[in-house]
Amino acid sequence: MVLSSCQAQSTPMPEQTKQISLLVSLDAPAFIKRDGWKDYQPVGFGAIIYPTDLLKTDGEIKLLCADRQTVKTFTKIGRNPCPLSTSNRVLNYGEMFFISGSRGAPPSTIPYILYPRNTTILETRPVLRWNDTKSSNYTVEIWQGSDIVWQQDNVSTSEFTYPATAPELQPGKDYLLVVQDNDTGESSNADPNKGLGFQVVNLQQRTELENEQKTIQGVDGLDTSAQEMALALYFYQIQINGRGLWGNAEDLFTEALQLQPESPALHLRLGDSLAKMKLWSEAKAEYEIALSLAQSLADLESQADALVALWQITGDQADFDQAVSLYNQIGAKYNAETLKSTRVGLPTPTSISENDPICGSGLLIVPFLIIGERLRSRNNKLKNNKKLRLTKEFWNH
């Protein structure tokens, strides 16, 4: 079962896109060759490995398989050793190519919301965080619709734990955190991005998510950074009433980076989580780090992925052109052609109503998977000059 992005569901389930394995350990340089690629390319910790990928190393690498319970050790050269899982609850990652355009990052002079922001959350008493404008004090409020649920005056820091004495946040209700800088009068409501509310998981969902966390933490052969990466991806891909646990995923990716700071994959995934929450400046910074690290490793795919992500935020044509060139350089023709096709015959975000009835979103996106097994069949379709259709969805808020 896949959670709908437009209706409430009780049990969180990952979107069924494509099974993946994660590279969670390596003691020597590692390389992969995806279907259609011209040659092997270097990869590092956290790299996404598809079932048909070929691997090569002079040392030993470990993969966490799609079932999130099996760790396979690999040496020398060969195909991804992880078995395909028959479960409908597998590790997967569906990346999104947005229609490009300059994103409306909130100005640094307002206390814009950092967390919780356009996300589902696990905590009923979350730590509320916002941009520090160096104010002597803030007023912090939580709204539900047109009603104020809770207010705290004279908060002297840029974070505050929702207190035990405050009304308990209820599952299924959409809340909005609002913060005002009492020195300047500036409010988080001045954020140009809309749809920044949050919801809390219900008891059944929380129990299931906590069980998943215990399962991943109990897998033999995974160190802390690998556990955090796997759980972050699981939280990222879940959809509950149109939102993932993107804020919790952000925290886990950040913690994993404390142990694996040189991983382009982790910076890319952290950037993705921030972009989901419409924190465009913060996401851009992570993508720029990922690009720099990938250049140091000569990892052309991660360079291209980072450039695409930057293009999505800034609309810089140079980033787009360089990404297409890199995809073509490694032989990822489908990636290059799909990326180019996102600019053909599709409306821009500004032409779509923010109150569109389809999930009420204002940003059009085009789902795009950098895929393994499906790459061959899609490339065959390209060769036969069959038209590829891109599914149009709307960014949930």
Write up this protein.
This protein is α+β, with helices and mostly antiparallel strands. The chain has 2 domains: 21-96 and 205-394, Tetratricopeptide repeat domain (Serine Threonine Protein Phosphatase 5, Tetratricopeptide repeat), CATH 1.25.40; 113-191, Immunoglobulin-like (Sandwich). The chain is 31% helix and 21% strand. The strands form 5 sheets. Strands 1, 2, 3, 4, 5 and 6 form a 6-stranded antiparallel sheet that branches. Strands 7-16-17 form a 3-stranded antiparallel sheet. A hairpin with a 6-residue loop joins strand 5 (54-64) and strand 6 (71-79). The longest helix is centred in the C-terminal third of the chain and has 18 residues, at 280-297. The protein is globular, with a radius of gyration of 21 Å.
Task: Summarize the helices and strands and which ones pair or pack.
Blueprint (H helix, E strand, L loop, with lengths): L20 E6 L3 E4 L7 E3 L4 E2 L4 E11 L6 E9 L16 E3 L14 E3 L3 E3 L5 E4 L7 E7 L2 E9 L3 E3 L13 E7 L16 E3 L2 H15 L6 H14 L8 H14 L4 H13 L3 H18 L2 H15 L2 H14 L2 H9 L22 E4 L5 H11 L9 E2 L3
Parallel strand pairs: 9-15
Antiparallel strand pairs: 1-4, 1-5, 2-3, 2-5, 5-6, 7-16, 8-10, 10-13, 11-12, 11-14, 16-17
Helix pairs in contact: 1-2, 2-3, 3-4, 4-5, 4-6, 5-6, 6-7, 7-8
